[in-house]
Structures are given as structure tokens and as C-alpha cells.
Amino acid sequence: MQYLNEREPEYDLTYDDAFLVxxxxxxxxxxxxxxxxxxxxxxxxxxxVANMTAVAGRRMAETVAxxxxxxxLPQDVDPHAVADIVSWVKQRDTMWDTPLTLSxxxxxxxxxxxxxxxxxxxxxxxxxxxxxxxIVPEKACSGVDQFARLDDIAEKAQVQLPMTTPAREVxxxxxxxxxxxxxxxDADGRLAGVLTRVGALRASIYRPAVDDFGxxxxxxxxxxxxxxxxxxxxxxxxxxxxxxxxxAHGHQEKMLKALRAVRSLEPxxxxxAGNVVTAQGAKDLIEAGADIVKVGVGPGAxxxxxxxxxxxxxxxSAVAETAAAxxxxxxxxWADGGIRHPRDVALALAAGAxxxxxxxxxxxxxxxxxxxxxxEHGRPYKESFGMASKRAVEARTRSxxxxxxxxxxxxxxxxxxxxxxxxxVRPSVEDLLDSxxxxxxxxxxxxxxxxLEQFHERAVVGVQSAAGFAEGRPLPSGW
Length: 479
Prior knowledge:
Helices cover about 35% and strands about 15% of the residues.
């Protein structure tokens, strides 16, 4: 990366302060751009879902890995639960989505309560042997007795195909029948997966992030307190693909000790550590054993650190400085926090990050762990909260005595409850990934880059005023 006119900025930059300059390009199509990362995590798009309780769960892990990204399970999750989640994710199909299923005798209200767990908008009715007997789309649940049996309103599944059917054939069958959902059957005719038309298209565009055995990848986090080696050992035995050692202030002795403890286990997976915002912080964590350094203090949507403490750093400059230091040592950084638009992802990658961590933006999706709620106007939303907030601290310290719990509750930082509305146009995390990846691919074509490493090398970054940023915003409501 270089700055426009080779003029280094005189002050630190946020993503809003920066812009990318188009340069000569021979890349003809955004589909010619390879978004695979080079940091050893095996991801085929540079997106990592942050280890936030309101964001990262099994549904998110399955869906994002199927599109090439990675989800980090939170450090508050018990290692035994992590093992169950990892095992479940690794048993998922790499093309077909996991279906929502109910029995013929279940009620309509059961289907309504289940719909918000997946983006495909339908429940499949199966018999006692797992064979499909019908489909209940969301629209079929409207205007009927909520306690009616599903068997009474289920529609016939028009497209039922073997799980081995190529994605394009699935799309063509759905198109031919005017159907939205295909059922994937195993060799015995039991339901094994579902696929929408847009899901079939995505399967031809994205490459799943898979391990050496062809199974979907998933990461998990541990903190720096307690027996770090024991927790890390349990996570590694659960077959996680990336281990994240995480604390809000990563440039401290406790983190360095934790990294040394993790390295004593000789892990065969990449080790990520953070968070830091300086070159020295990145160097110290790398020297202690980190393969990837997590960068960002205070830019997160649920984070109040900067307002409460004055501590942090504008994210674009933090990423640029730490990425340069890490690359000089043959290592990498993840840009963690501050992402509001696809442009921010492109700028973080241009600054040198190998991947970008996203949290709250993904909380308002079907795939996040929270229950789907509706506001007073009937608009769907989910709740999100910061991992240093009172809500998270209470969950993290629930096994401690009341006195210690009360002491720690006095010093929480972060928002304990925030409504994250589901975008009516992009309600699924896959919709958001489409938007992000399309933006990054296009940014690469403007820079003449066929892959992310070329993008970082060729990127030309300028500095703009607030008016410059405002000028680039669309006016969807007109003048």
C-alpha cells in the first residue's frame, strides 16, 4: 500500500478518513479475483466472525464456513460444548444447508417459532424415519389456526434430488418447477439437506473453508485467565482449526504468558492473539508465539472503551502499522472492529490485514444465536451486547462467589443490550457476505489486483475530509 502522492498523513485515520484511488487494471471481471487468505487459516474469503456470544454459534459457524469464512466460538463457551459444536459443524454438508424439520403432528406455532433460525424460510415435515412428507413455507403459516397440525397445511415438495446433484442442476430443477427450495435426499430417501435457488448460485461462486478431511472449519477462543494451557488443550482436542487467545488489552504480560503456555502444547493450528494497536504490540505477541495478531481497541459497535477510558486508536492506522510490523516477521494481522460498510473491509485489506473480523453487523441476521424478536412496528430484530458489558461479565463470572461477581460487575465496559434490526433486503449473513465480497472483488479490479496480496501491494490510499466521505454516500431517498 502507498499513500496518494506519497504523502504520509499527519494524524491517525479511521476507515471514514481513507479512500482508494483507481489505478490501471488488466483484471476484466470481479469473478477473476481470488479472495483466499494467505494466513494459514484455510479461508477462501477474508471474513472472520467475532467471538461474541450474540453473534457466533453453530448456525453461524456452519453457514459462514460454507461460504469460505471462519467463525470464532466465544471464550465463555465451555470446552465440552465447544467440542459438541465443532463436531456438529464438521458433520454438515459443504453445499446443502441444514434443514429445519418437524413432524406431521406438530403445530403451526412450532413452525413459526422455528422459521427465524434459518434464512431459507421453510420447515420440512418428515415422518418417523426422516423421509420428507411436505414443506411448510413461511407464507403458509399466515392466516391459519396456529395450533393446526402441520400435516394439514404442508405443501408437496416439487424438487427432491440426491445430495450428489451438482449445484447448477439443482438451480435448473428449481427454475423449471418455479420452486424456491430443493430437498436433498440420502441414498435411503431420508432428508439430508435443503438448497434454495440463490444457495445453488452461491455454491458455484464461493468455495467452502474445509480442513484436510473436507470438513467445514471452525475456530474457538480462550481467555488469558485461569489454566490457559488446560483450556487450550481441550479446545485443540475438540479439533478446532484455529485457536484465538483473546483479551481486550493484548499487550500485557498475562497475554505473553498465555501465549507461551499455548505454544508449549505444540499446536498444529494457527494461533491468533490480541488485541493490540501498535507495531510493538504486534511484535511482542508474535515473538511470544502468535501466528496472527488481532488488531483493534475501541472501534466495535458495542464497545464503550474509548468513551470510558480514552484508550484506543483509529482503526485504519492501527491496522496499517501493525500489518507492516507483522509482515516484516512473516506473520499476519486480523482487523477487528469498526466495520460498517463493505468499503471498510476493502480498506482494511488494502492496509495489510489478511482478514477482517466482524461482530455486531452480523448479529442482526437469521444465523446469529439469539431469538428473533419484533418491535412495535412488526420489524424483526435480534439483541446484541458487548463482551465486556455487564451482561457478558455476569455470564462469564456465574461460577464465582457473589462477592467477586459484584466487584467485577462494577467495572464493565460495553453495551449490554442493543437491537440489531434485520435488513429486509439482506436478512441473512449470506446476503451480507454477498455484499461484502462483491465490494472487495470490485475494489480489487479498480486496483488491478487478481488476489488479496496484489491488492495490498497495488492499493493507493488517499485521505479525505468528512465532506469527502459524505459525498460518497448514496441518496436512496432522493434529494
